[in-house]
């Protein structure tokens, strides 16, 4: 280190000291933050000791009598004779008549459940569910009113025959119905052939709302794409952050293992957690779980159903259809023979052969919120003691929130008038043009109008002079308080959704501490806060094989109303807070000016004035002559 000479005396400069805790450079209390993490140890210990192994129901004593040849024949005839079974088509009506006639031949009582829905990209269509009940067997035999539903959708997207998805499921359904029609069962059985399954489970959602069965159905077995090349798989995500009774999933797993001699796949632990945080599934068990009815899907597809391209008769694998058909029959036999079937839904995450209870996971996520809240409250108290003004920072946040609400309002308007997709609040078929073709013109108009809103608010949000450290700290505190409010709303709606929010809370809290370490460090901390939303988009991009279309797909889900309004509004508030934190990160933040510092006209009035001046600019008098009474009156009336 260079020395400073004063005559003969050499004086070393004092070493650079680290900012003192509690100073403007380090305002967040690391001690309180670390101590608050001790709260998380309690739910972690509870979660560790609550790990359990669910018990499967006893397997049926008699082997399944599922006939492979008959099931394959049913599937082949449906795919060959009605290759286009898309909702509203002639093939869909012919397919419904074919399946209904087959069930009538078995002596079933068949009811046509017709309903009308708005399908994105197809308009309003009339769909038909077939609800079939087997004939009574023997006098004096009383069946329980508790109902087990076996279901499969018979529709497809219409581009290919859909031999696997889902003529194979329909063939298995009819073969199971043939077997059950000659058997004696203890429960009431319903064989359900749904319409609109390829378009987000429209038929399943309609049946799940049927009040006649709402309190009677104890389990649902969904058969979907049973004859594909993929390994057997179980799907059990729901429309709400719930899961089917663990005994049903364990019994289905054991049935597949026994009959197909392979352990079925299921979503991984992270995937299950994401499904609880953002409930979503492209299979038809989801609406039933959303209504509190345990349901599980047997399939050879992945987390996304098989693509229609190439789904022809040549793609049918009879051995897979036979194995999963026998598995479904064994599962049905176990459920029917059980003295007590676990009813209702729960929430949990499978890890190997064990599961972690959902309430302990929620407890951990809520506990992880405590350090952020404690540090934010302490930061608020420190700022109050230093008399740091908070109102200008809060007004700055509210102004940014107004811009985001303006963009959200435009988005809702575009969806309401049909510029963006609208229809039933159900998942959108990922292989349709609605999911794959971005409406470039509509999105460009939306971005342009949203940018116009930003330009209106911008003059009061950008710095016109140097902003000191206390003002920056006030802006940071305002953003943290807003994020705390968003977190509490999200926790009240769905505690699992905190998974997407916690990274931004804990990363952005420490931005004041890295403000002196250069732009790269600040940008790295700021980028870390987006890990949560990127996890959601990555799930759609990778798990559901949407790639870059995942961004538009999530927006389309918001447009059709699948995403709850509460969470959509919470995201807009989070976006406003992220914008304020971003402005602080790049040094473009300014507190909202006081009344005495503002121009005589507000943003809206000034915008109207500029538009009037722009229209009169060509060949008009000089600018100092444009303040005529009519222009002034127009601006004053805005």
Description:
The protein is built from 23 helices and 13 strands. The protein folds into 3 domains: 285 residues, Zn peptidases (Aminopeptidase, 3-Layer(aba) Sandwich); 205 residues, no CATH class; 39 residues, no CATH class. 50% of the residues lie in helices and 12% in strands. The chain has a 7-stranded mixed beta sheet with strand order 3-4-6-5-7-10-8, with helices on both faces. It has a two-stranded antiparallel sheet with strand order 1-2. A two-stranded antiparallel sheet has the order 9-11.
Average pLDDT confidence is 89
In angstroms, what is the radius of gyration? 31 Å
Q: What structural class results from the helix and strand content?
A: alpha/beta
Query: Can you tell me the CATH architecture of the largest domain?
Result: 3-Layer(aba) Sandwich
User: What is the overall silhouette?
Assistant: elongated
Strand element count: 13
Q: Please give the order of strands in the largest beta sheet.
A: 3-4-6-5-7-10-8
**The biggest beta sheet, please?**
7 strands, mixed
The CATH class label of the largest domain is Alpha Beta
């Amino acid at each position: 280190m260079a020395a400073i000479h004063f005559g003969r005396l050499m004086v070393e400069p004092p070493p650079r000291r680290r900012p003192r805790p509690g100073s403007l450079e380090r305002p967040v209390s690391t001690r309180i933050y670390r101590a608050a993490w001790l709260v998380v140890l309690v739910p972690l210990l509870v979660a560790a000791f609550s790990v359990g192994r669910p018990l499967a129901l006893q397997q049926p004593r008699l082997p399944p009598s599922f006939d492979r040849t008959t099931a394959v024949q049913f599937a082949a005839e449906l795919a060959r004779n009605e290759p286009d079974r898309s909702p509203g088509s002639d093939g869909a009506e012919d397919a419904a008549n074919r399946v209904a006639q087959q069930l009538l031949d078995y002596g079933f009582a068949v009811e046509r459940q017709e309903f009308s829905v708005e399908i994105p990209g197809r308009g309003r269509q009339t769909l038909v569910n077939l609800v079939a009940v087997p004939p009574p067997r023997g006098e004096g035999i009383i069946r329980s009113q508790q109902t087990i539903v076996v279901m499969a959708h018979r529709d497809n997207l219409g581009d290919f025959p859909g031999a696997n998805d889902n003529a194979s499921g329909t063939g298995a359904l009819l073969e199971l119905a043939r077997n059950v029609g000659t058997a004696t069962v203890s429960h009431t059985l319903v064989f359900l052939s749904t319409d609109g399954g390829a378009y987000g489970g429209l038929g399943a959602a309609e049946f799940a709302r049927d009040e006649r069965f709402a309190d009677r159905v104890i389990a649902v077995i969904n058969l979907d794409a049973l004859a594909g090349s993929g390994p057997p798989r179980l799907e059990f995500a729901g429309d709400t952050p719930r899961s089917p009774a663990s005994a049903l999933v364990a019994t289905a797993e054991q049935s597949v293992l026994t009959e197909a001699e392979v352990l079925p796949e299921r979503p991984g632990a992270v995937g299950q957690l994401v499904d609880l945080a953002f409930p979503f599934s492209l299979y038809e068990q989801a609406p039933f779980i959303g209504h509190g009815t345990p349901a599980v899907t047997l399939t050879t597809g992945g987390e996304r159903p098989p693509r229609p391209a190439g789904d022809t008769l040549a793609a049918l694998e009879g051995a897979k259809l036979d194995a999963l058909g026998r598995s479904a029959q064994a599962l049905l036999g176990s459920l029917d023979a059980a003295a007590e079937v676990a009813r209702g839904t729960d929430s949990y995450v499978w890890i190997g052969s064990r599961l972690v209870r959902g309430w302990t996971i929620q407890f951990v996520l809520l506990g992880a919120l405590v350090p952020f809240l404690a540090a934010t409250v302490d930061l608020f108290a420190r700022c109050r003691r230093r008399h740091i003004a908070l109102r200008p920072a809060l007004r700055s946040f509210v102004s940014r929130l107004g811009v985001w609400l303006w963009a959200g309002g435009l988005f809702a308007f575009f969806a309401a008038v049909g510029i963006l997709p609208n229809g039933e609040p159900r998942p959108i078929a990922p292989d349709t043009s609605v999911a794959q073709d971005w409406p470039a013109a509509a999105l460009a108009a939306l971005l342009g109008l949203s940018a116009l809103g930003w330009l209106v608010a911008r003059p009061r949000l950008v710095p016109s002079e140097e902003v000191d450290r206390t003002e920056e700290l006030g802006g940071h505190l305002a953003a943290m308080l807003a994020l705390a409010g968003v977190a509490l709303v999200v926790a009240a709606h769905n505690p699992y959704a905190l998974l997407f929010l916690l990274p931004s809370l804990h990363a952005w809290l420490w931005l004041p501490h890295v403000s002196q370490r250069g732009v790269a460090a600040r940008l790295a901390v700021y980028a870390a806060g987006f890990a949560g939303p990127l996890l959601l988009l990555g799930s759609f991009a990778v798990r559901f094989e949407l790639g870059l279309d995942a961004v538009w797909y999530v927006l389309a889900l918001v447009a059709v109303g699948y995403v709850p309004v509460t969470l959509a509004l919470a995201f807009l508030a989070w976006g406003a807070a992220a914008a304020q934190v971003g402005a602080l990160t790049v040094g473009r933040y300014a507190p909202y000016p006081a009344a005495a510092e503002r121009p005589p006209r507000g943003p809206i009035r000034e915008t109207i004035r500029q538009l009037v001046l722009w229209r009169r600019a060509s060949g008009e008098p000089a600018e100092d002559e444009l303040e005529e009474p009519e222009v002034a009156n127009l601006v004053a009336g805005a």
